[in-house]
Write a structure and sequence with these properties.
The protein is an all-alpha fold. 49% of the residues lie in helices and 0% in strands.
Length: 83
Amino acid sequence: HQECYDGSGYPDGLKGEDIPLGARIVAVADAFGAMTTTRPYRKALSVAQAIAELREYSGIQFDPDIVEIFLAILKGQSASGDV
């Protein structure tokens, strides 16, 4: 999941749909989890801040389709009180 959607990642510099679907999904989920979790070196971002980061890097670091699906799922959970 270290490959970037725009091809700037590693280890192979894969781009777009050349990146396996599972890796594109994990990249979004892992980044969201990392951003919204307090770490020894920084405080957690709010959900709104993490969503803004996902949107900012959609099409660059993250698959834009996966970002939109992920955000739709979050919105659905929020409507039911889960987020």
